[in-house]
DNA sequence: CTGAAAGCGCTTACAG
DNA sequence: CTGAAAGCGCTTACAG
């Protein structure tokens, strides 16, 4: 039998009421210094910790944020995870990590989030059906789509201004004198991949530059093998690759084929993950300002958790081009 | 006001008692098919989810595993995280992600774990003072040090057999005909780095091969800059680098200096992270069998959570050498 | 198999 | 500022 030390035990030892013990641990409650001292001494002696579950049960709110993530292989996401965790820690919130293997978040994961009555939810690179998203709305649990946009205007989303970023990438590549280009898509179901394509091809069309689209899956392997396929047929003057990890695969494929970058062709990625700056790659890319994106997400969630309104908005941050050696 | 749907609401609609509703959601309880049907229909209509907090309060056990992690930059750890999450999900456990920036787990994080009354704790690349570790013992919360050993025999730890692995790496390098070697340490406070050094240098000493030790910090940057420093003075016939991510830095530093691998010198890493197999690196390394390590950890935790004994053991798994192009 | 009731460890009006 | 008491949403003996 596990003997848990409760507020009652502490109260007994300290010679005060259980309510007073509770007040010591509840920020904002009124307790005298004297009582506080007695209670803390007794608590230290017994090794008391307020039970977060009992607390949550009575306040009907938790200090848990559900963070849903899929692509742990892409260094972008672990970084997002650690930044969220660090930021929420400042506010006393903990992160429940939900990992989906599937593209779409599974029912059992949704159950978990609902059962734990999480204070808020962040969806990163997974998708969520509108029906499921609505069930969070019904429970007044604020939800943010991070780095993904959603079709309807019913939810809050934070992402990079992909449209503008990819337009500027197209202009940048155009200025370098390209004549034929390739857009290498990630998972085409994602808004991320689609928007980056849209902005890029829009500018190219304006300038009558031919381009071809290939599809892959946002992974290194995908980038590598697709690039190998592509160069069998043609060598475009530049590749715009939907994210960095794929772009690294493209670079390695080109290197294997003896194709020099940036002399023979050019490559631009998206994300600015740490590895893109490594000497072996030196990838030109678009930096997503994770800090800002995290901050906007946390601020929204904090506000909604304090006072739920269900407010929806599509927030976009700009970011900037990081020019390195592949262009 | 948030209106939570409770078992009572469901009971009313279904025309049964609240206890019956409870029984439907508690696996193992006896309920008739008829009652179950009525309850599930009512629950679906109302959108009911059993409150995990109330449940935990009464059973005095949670389904939350605290996972403490520091080095999210090293791809080894995100992989560990996702494997643990996937494995525990099978058993109905969720993962509370605790990220420390500091080497040692901070007090507030310990508080969090204790407050949430987690069912078990996994410490990966962070350290934990014995005093703190004991407080988990006092609360009968099973604890595993993952990929780290602890000085005393009071705790369960799961790691690779670093001693044997590094001995075999030394022998392997010796067979390649090296005459002077370098061991590039990670954080020297870690058992991981120290053991890898010990096994490696033991064999070298036996064969009267000179070696030199340099210290770094288990990061890519650390490996890169330290290697640059090293080759200013000498070019050893081989580097044994305490983990892969540092070894990748070493390879990039050598490449920058025009030093050919494996012709001019050789490099061996440790972990076998995904990137080590990428064409740009093709690093020879020691594969840590994450699957086995995770499995042993989960099995132990599951057993202890069912029936706490406080059993301590140091478990080691073997792994194997992956020979690629850097040797 | 089912219901009424006690109780998990807290917070929070309510009096004083 | 403090204590006695109600109650959060469940599980679980206890009867029937």
Automatic annotation (TrEMBL), chains A, B:
The keyword Transcription regulation applies. CDD domains: HTH_LacI (cd01392), PBP1_LacI-like (cd06278). This is LacI family transcriptional regulator. Residues 5-59 form the HTH lacI-type domain. InterPro entries: HTH_LacI (IPR000843), LacI/GalR-like_sensor (IPR046335), Lambda_DNA-bd_dom_sf (IPR010982), Peripla_BP_I (IPR028082). Gene3D superfamilies: 3.40.50.2300, lambda repressor-like DNA-binding domains (1.10.260.40). GO terms for molecular function: DNA-binding transcription factor activity; transcription cis-regulatory region binding. PROSITE patterns: HTH_LACI_2. Pfam families: LacI (PF00356), Peripla_BP_3 (PF13377). The keyword Transcription applies. It comes from Jeotgalibacillus proteolyticus. Keywords: DNA-binding, Repressor, Transcription, Transcription regulation.
């Amino acid at each position: 039998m596990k003997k848990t030390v409760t507020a009652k035990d502490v109260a007994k030892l300290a010679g005060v009421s259980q309510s007073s013990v509770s007040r010591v641990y509840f920020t904002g409650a009124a307790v005298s210094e004297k009582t506080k001292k007695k209670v803390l001494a007794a608590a230290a002696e017994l090794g008391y910790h307020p039970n977060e579950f009992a607390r949550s049960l009575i306040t009907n709110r938790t200090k848990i944020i559900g963070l849903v993530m899929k692509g742990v292989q892409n260094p972008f996401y672990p970084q997002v995870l650690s930044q969220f965790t660090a930021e929420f820690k400042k506010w006393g919130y903990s992160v429940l990590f939900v990992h989906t293997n599937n593209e779409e978040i599974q029912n059992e994961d949704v159950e978990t989030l609902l059962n734990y009555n999480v204070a808020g939810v962040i969806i990163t690179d997974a998708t969520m059906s509108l029906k499921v998203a609505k069930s969070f709305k019904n429970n007044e649990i604020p939800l943010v789509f991070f780095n993904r946009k959603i079709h309807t205007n019913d939810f809050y989303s934070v992402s990079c201004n992909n449209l503008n970023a990819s337009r500027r990438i197209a202009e940048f590549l155009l200025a370098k004198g390209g004549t034929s280009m390739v857009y290498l898509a990630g998972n085409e179901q994602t808004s991320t991949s689609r928007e980056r394509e849209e902005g890029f091809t829009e500018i190219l069309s304006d300038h009558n530059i031919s381009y071809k689209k290939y599809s892959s899956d946002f992974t290194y392997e995908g980038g590598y093998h697709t690039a190998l396929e592509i160069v069998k047929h043609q060598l475009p003057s530049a590749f715009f690759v939907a994210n960095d990890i794929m772009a690294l695969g493209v670079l390695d494929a080109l290197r294997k084929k003896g194709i020099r970058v940036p002399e023979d062709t050019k490559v631009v990625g998206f994300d600015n993950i740490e590895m893109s700056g490594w000497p072996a790659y030196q990838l030109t890319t678009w930096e997503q300002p994770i800090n800002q994106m995290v901050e906007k997400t946390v601020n929204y969630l904090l506000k909604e958790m304090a006072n739920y309104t269900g407010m929806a908005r599509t927030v976009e941050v700009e970011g900037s081009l990081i020019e390195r050696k592949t262009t």
